Amino acid sequence: MSDNLSNFTRTLQKQIFEETKKAYGMAAFERWRNPLYMGAIDNPDGYARVTGPCNDTMEIFLRFEKDRVVEASFQTDGCGSSAVCGSFAAEMAIGKTPDEILDVTGDAILEKLGGLPKDEVHCALLAGETLQEAIGNYMINQIKTMKGGIRKP
Fold first, then answer.
1. Structural contact between residues 60 and 8, judged by C-beta atoms closer than 8 angstroms
2. Averages of pLDDT over each 10 residues, the chain, 153 residues
3. Which residues pair with 68 in a beta bridge?
4. Strand pairing partners for 111?
5. Which of 20, 22, 84, 118 lies most in the core, judged by the most C-beta atoms within 10 Å?
6. CA separation for the pair 128, 15 (Å, rounded)
7. What interhelical angle do 106-113 and 80-93 show, nearest 10?
8. pLDDT recorded at residue 148
């Protein structure tokens, strides 16, 4: 009985993995299995939290040195596609200046992934929007710092 269940479980998992690879592509599949850049950064230089139309919430955390992102991460309460897109948004931000990050949009994330199923495209748009909001927060913090204001993440 136990062998039958183990065989069934392995076969089912293999089938799920193959269907996921086919529907989402290898890049998204690998990142879904091994998400990178997940978790909060204490006292980030730039931060945003956005809730999308599907009610998934994405958070992006950015740390800068010499006007370049040296650390980026994300958190989401959303689905696997949201996690994949948040992971790629964080990865695509590292090493970039705020001006360069303006090019890291939902469409750029979709391109990096090789696309997503139509019903999941909103996850990339949410990640891109959240990253743009985090850059906006960073820029506001820079202005406050230059004016002698209090810097708040």
1. no
2. 83 88 88 94 97 95 97 96 97 97 97 92 97 97 77 50
3. 65
4. none
5. 84
6. 31
7. 100
8. 66
Six token digits for residue 116:
């997503």
Q: Locate tokens 């980026």: which residue?
A: 72
Tell me which residue has tokens 């529907």. 23
If you search the block for the tokens 């964080």, which residue do you land on? Answer: 90
What's the 3-state SS for 78-131?
A: CCHHHHHHHHHHHHHHCCCCHHHHCCCCHHHHHHHHCCCCHHHHHHHHHHHHHH
DSSP 43: S
Q: List the one residue out of 125, 117, 63, 57 whose CA is nearest residue 88.
A: 125
CA distance 86 to 138: 18
* Residue whose structure tokens are 């992934």: 113
Please give the domain boundaries of the chain with CATH numbers for all domains. Answer: 25-146 (3.90.1010.10)
Q: How far apart are CA 68 and CA 85, in angstroms?
A: 21
CA 148 to chain centre: 32
Rounded to an integer, what distance in angstroms lies between the CA atom of residue 1 and that of residue 9?
12
Q: How many CB atoms lie within 10 A of CB 76?
A: 25
